[in-house]
Amino acid sequence: MPSLNQPSSPVSRRDFLRSGARIAGMTGAGALLGLMAQRAGAVTHVWQIDPAKCVRCGRCATDCVLEQSAVKCVHTHAICGYCELCTGYFEPEPNALNTGAENQLCPTAAIIRKFIEDPYYEYVIDEQLCIGCGKCVEGCNRFGNGSLYLQVRHDRCVNCNECSIARVCAGDAFRRVPVDHPYLLKTSH
Amino acid sequence: MNSPAHSSRCSRRRFLLRGAAGTAAAVVAGRQRGRTAGSGDTNPYAYSVGVHEKTDPALVKYVERRRIDLPWKEARRLAVTPQGNLLVAAGQRLGEVTPDGSAVREVPMAAPLRCVAVAADGTIYAGFRAHLEVFEADGKRRATWEKSPERSWFTGIAVTDDAVFAADAGARVILRHDLAGQVTARIGERDKDRDIPGFVLPSPYLDVEWHPDGLLRVNNPGRHRVEFYTPDGALEFAWGRPTMAIEGFSGCCNPVNLAVLSDGRLVTCEKGLPRVKVYSAHGDFECVVAGTEMFPENAQAGAGDGFGDGTRASLDAVVGPEDRIYILDTVTAQIHVMERKPTANS
Q: Count of domains in chain B?
């Protein structure tokens, strides 16, 4: 004879197990959805620099949370004039137009200068060396076509919720952009 | 009378509101301070040409008599009419102002106007990106010349009694036309046999000026010099050197525009370090018309800033009656009217 403390019928036990499974399932599904939503939320938008607003204040080099900034100089070759005297490559008053360190503007020698044909030279950014200081960008924008400019490189950026560079950006140039269009690139005129 | 309980609730609410307001103010102030610090702190990576932005006052031989605020945006080039008025190529319009700045008229154009010149009889030659148009003095269109098949970008025009010289920065050539619009010569293209090195134009700035001495003056900004050609295209001589110093041409590519004084001396305009100077026909630096200090917004804007076509910040100059020099600042859309300072003899 069943004890008075035991469930009065087997249906109740089944109901109990069923509701337990339902709750566990819903909890798991909720957790999964939450995780997916969280992950989806993290990658729908990323930080990027609007080149039209950038004032080359130098904070990209000094204020990124990474040891070496995720901001790098990029080069739109279609806009570049391939100048012999590139104001993004050379000091304002270089001793000579050659690759001597004393003539280079970049503090880390991150721009590679290559002869194409008289009098044209190609300039390529070595991203391993670039610290995103924007010195070359200012030189190029001041005198040239503005083919050098800064962008957040997303193979490095950790996409902080509040970007530490954006907080101090003097030109208010940082903004969130859709992850499927993560760069604000200049195009040929 | 409030009950003690009610009074207590109000205080708590006020306390929370004050706390929230204080926190918000602190956050805003912190952000603002960060931004201000960013802009105000010394930038260890600053690109500095400051020493070249200051002009030795002894070198400035001109004084600004007037400044004209143009009512039109996107002003690019100037020309002087036979009456001494100023024509302004500004966006999709051709504007005209008197020397004292009164707007005379505005002729709408179908496309952005790149350059303009006026013949002695008042005929107006207007340059668009890839073709030229001819207008009567009253602004009525007379002809549209055939569109260039090349990758054209017209940036300057000079007119004589029997020819129209059009500077095509896209094709890197000066095209000589007869008055009917037929191309009769190509000037300045690279030609080893004629010892012509060719134009180097990192950005669309190629200007051509004519003087009654019979020579065309053409800037070659990528080579930092001015070249002198006969109307048949022979390169007679050239001068100029790259340097930020006042006697040379600064940056990657200057001068960007030219004008000619009545005695053949040359007025040069630079971008980057916006400044206007006078050289003898043989290239001796003579004086400064306007130093970089006169164009602070232009200097700050930068030629290549934004998503434009590399022509955002530049200067143009024309010479009017009595060798008065009119300088157009493309950033502020202002014309600076410059006159030679009186000398002790005068």
A: 1
